[in-house]
Amino acid sequence: MPRQTLTDSQLRSIKAPQKGRTEYFDTKVRGLALRVSAKSKRNPEGARAWYLVYRLPKTTSVQRLKLGFHGRGGLSLADAREKAEEERGKVSKSRSKKLLNRKNRM
Prior knowledge:
Layout: E1 3-4, H1 8-13, E2 21-26, E3 32-37, E4 48-55, E5 62-69, H2 77-105
């Protein structure tokens, strides 16, 4: 899982792995990742999707929220960063609501 400041030119040069998938994390927006999957019959160039990766409080499980695809007709790097920031705010608000509900039940 390489962690680097992603640029448009870097994204164009990333090749699909032979098997499985690879995630490239952005250092500018915490949790933003580009997941590049291997080539298949369905996706001869390999699939590229933007994800927001985060952890729920008091757990070790990693959650992934798909933001959209990268490429033609998909999200650009700037759009993905903007959407990730918005979704991160929503996730943190829902976390605090869940925690409040738990405390009120006790």
